[in-house]
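Q: Got a minute? One more chain.
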Amino acid sequence: MEAKAITRHIRQSPRKIRILLDDLRGVNVESALNYLHFSKAKAAYQIEKTLSSAVANLMNKIDNKDVSVNSVYVKECFADGAPHLKRFRAASMGRISRINKKSSHLTIIVSTEKK
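A: Always. Here it is, folded:
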């Protein structure tokens, strides 16, 4: 059985979030939450919240039937691009330069079966 959680419009680029997500694929949820809780990366907070939500969704889906956090694994996790905030900064000779402030959508799928 599997469940998923999605967090949308995170104000961080998907590339920076993917750095942490690469370490979590296929890992036990308990060790993943432990890793994220003590990580210094800014993205770790949002990933931890989304992973906890996915586990809660799984528990709710199967009505807490003998499922412990030890038997749940991260099946898939990915970060996709979201709309940019378009900003401008003054450049030389009266021109402007464009700044794109990126955001992302985070999806985490947890499962009781390990691949």
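A: The helical segments are 14-24, 29-37, 43-61.
Q: Perfect, thanks.
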